[in-house]
Amino acid sequence: MKNIKLHAIILALIIVAELIGTHTITIGIGRIVLLPMLFALLLGILTTPKFLNLSSQKEMVDASSLISVTLMLLMARYGTLVGPTLPKILAASPALILQEFGNLGTVLLGVPFAVYLGLKRETIGAAHSIAREPNVALIGEKFGLDSSEGRGVMGVYIAGTVFGTIFFGIMASVAASTLPIHPYALAMAAGVGSASMMSAALGSLVAMYPDMADQLAAFGAASNMLSGLDGLYMSVWLGLPMTEWLYKKFYKIKYGVEPKEGEEA
Amino acid sequence: MNVKDTVIVLGIVSLMSLFSNVLGTKANIVESIPGLLILAAIALIGMMASKYLPGGIPAAAYVVTIGCIMTIPGFPGSDIVNLYVKKVGFLALCTPILAYAGVAIGKDLDAFAKSGWRICLLAIVVFVGTYIASAIIAQAILKYLGQI
């Protein structure tokens, strides 16, 4: 905490990252988004002993002990983003509210796949939700972001931040053209708690069904607001416990023994 | 971490966020400060609540809930809170966090390199799982309600 050198390094990283700014690369119908936070992360890694050796072991340990507090400032902002939308959220239809439980689909599909890939406790962080900011904060608080669980949630978070837009854009058009699901339902599903992912999925749907544009946009935005409100609570009380339980089951099926705490792939 | 240390760390992080906000969102320094102070206060109250109140509820849940309640239209002072926190960009707050995370990750780089590609593959399954499961439920309910 009183590590002046660490904070000086961080300050330099922030300034450089923000000066580099946001870059988007358009590929086909989607965009890859490179935000300052990604540059800050990569530059941060570059300061460590394997590369430039500006940050020593002491800085690395101190930095990881501070992350959970730094996340709380972001969570405060997150809450203040949700508050003003609350009256609209409360007016949402039952279809909108119930489809939120679809977010648990990540657990049902993600945990078996993670165990199949040979991931250990990384599974808990990576498969309990779609790893947006509140989920990162939750895992950071419970396990620390430098734990196996933390690596899992950070990996999916970064992947979502960089490729989420392009991926959701493509996924929505593939789903709309191959699955027997109404565009309204696909629009509601687009609200996963990330404005950029929702907009990308919605963009594809609106391009395919221009005459439904207004309704699709309204469903997408409302569902995204709902996810913003319930995402964290859903993770705390449903997603995480379910993930832990399923992980134990599938681990036992694959390895024949009970999983160990803090185990990494 | 005790209360004093938490306050100091929050102060440092707020200062870092001031830089990223001014550089990233082109807000000026003076108008960014009240919002950051409000956010730091919400964060502190939430962390203390998690530490001292029974129930073992994570600080993140308290912090999000307090932030949410304080900005619900009609809550006393919500207009003022909203006005000030709006000057603080959400993405600007992420930059300092990932800078600290980058430095911290340095010590687990081997573990990251080993599991990284698998986590990326998993991310795809996680996104598909959320999207398709939500769409199927929405489809079923809308059908049941006769709206499609």
- Assign an overall shape of chain B: extended
Determine the number of helices of chain B (DSSP H or I, runs of at least 4 residues).
6
Please report the distance between the alpha carbons of the first and last residues of chain A.
31 Å
**Helix content range of chain A:** over 70%
Number of helices of chain A: 12
Instruction: Provide the gyration radius of chain A in Å.
Output: 20 Å
- Judged by helices, strands and strand pairing, the structural class of chain B is mainly alpha
User: Termini separation of chain B (Å)?
Assistant: 54 Å
Number of strands of chain A: 2
Radius of gyration of chain B: 20 Å
Uncertain residue ranges of chain A = none
Give the arrangement of secondary structure elements:
The complex is a heterodimer of chains A (265) and B (148).
Chain A: H1 4-20, E1 23-27, E2 30-34, H2 36-46, H3 57-82, H4 86-90, H5 94-99, H6 105-117, H7 122-127, H8 133-143, H9 148-178, H10 183-190, H11 195-208, H12 213-255
Antiparallel strand pairs in A: 1-2
Chain B: H1 3-25, H2 29-52, H3 59-70, H4 78-85, H5 90-105, H6 109-145
Helix pairs in contact in B: 1-2, 1-5, 2-3, 2-4
Explain what the structure shows:
The complex is a heterodimer of chains A (265) and B (148). Chain A is mainly α. Chain A is 72% helix and 4% strand. Chain A is built from twelve helices and two strands. Chain A has helices spanning 4-20, 36-46, 57-82, 86-90, 94-99, 105-117, 122-127, 133-143, 148-178, 183-190, 195-208, 213-255, and strands at residues 23-27, 30-34. Chain A has a two-stranded antiparallel sheet. In chain A, β1 and β2 form a beta hairpin. In chain A, α11 (195-208) crosses α12. Chain A is globular and about 60 Å long. The mean pLDDT of chain A is 91. Chain B has helices at residues 3-25, 29-52, 59-70, 78-85, 90-105, 109-145. The mean pLDDT of chain B is 93. Chain B has 148 residues and is mainly α. The radius of gyration of chain B is 20 Å and the shape is extended. Chain B is built from six helices and no strands. The longest helix of chain B is centred in the last third of the chain and has 37 residues, at 109-145. The interface between A and B is large, with 126 and 98 residues.
